[in-house]
Amino acid sequence: MGQYDITVKYFAGKYPSAYIRLAVPDFAGTFRLLDKKLPQVEIEVDFLAEMQVGEETFTLHPDFQTRYDSNMRPRMLEYRVHIRRTYGKPVLSVVVWLTAEGYPGRGHNRWEEVVLGERQLVFEFREVCLWELNPEEYLARGEIALLPLIPLMGQQPSAEVLGRVVETASKIENVAEQADVLTGISVLGSLRYSRELIHSLIRREKMKESPIYQEIVQEGVLQGVVQAKRDDITKFLTERFERVPEEMVQAIESVEEIEELDRLIRAAARCASLEEFAAQMTEASAAGSSAR
Description:
five-stranded mixed beta sheet, two-stranded antiparallel sheet
């Protein structure tokens, strides 16, 4: 999932009203959280809430992106179709860009398709660019839920703002909540500030009580195990057959499941040739596709 996804999903789920107002600043109504898993396609989105504003009911879907992705228009449209089918309400689609990396400017959030002179599709999503928001305004609000996002606000990085955000978080009396917020600041702040600066402001032991921290550590350990097994397979094959084709190395790197990697380790030890091992790789690829 990645440390940034874990962090944003956690905070949006724990403090939904703050993240709703980030996507819909003038929101004045009621809401209820919805299941983020869309069963028809086994997709889990970042956040979903059913919103009630006056007589209007709709589903809010904000998606958080660390950097610009030119594929967001078709992706958000695909999400919208599945969300509409699952919950039966109109959808307000919002992309929250966490950094300006690669961002081409406004006007790239609309998708139209004209076929035989007919406008068959018009789709547009709302954009929230964090660097366009004023960090002072959000610091003044005092919402702890949004503290991890404030270091990403403003046109330029500000070590002074980062320090004030950490100072504010350090005053949270609830130890577990403080650990959550400091972990969020550490993870998301690394998108804009050096690890050295962040570590000088936030001690690791302050974060250990946070479920986000524990999940990130667990994922990192798991990914380390997976990569070690991939490396072992490549080294074993190189030792036996001298040279492993680059496409085979890439295929090994694409295997995610530990069980499949264990099977390939045994196959690397027993196969009589690289061709025989390639056949085993085909089985692993098929298994991974069916699992997904």
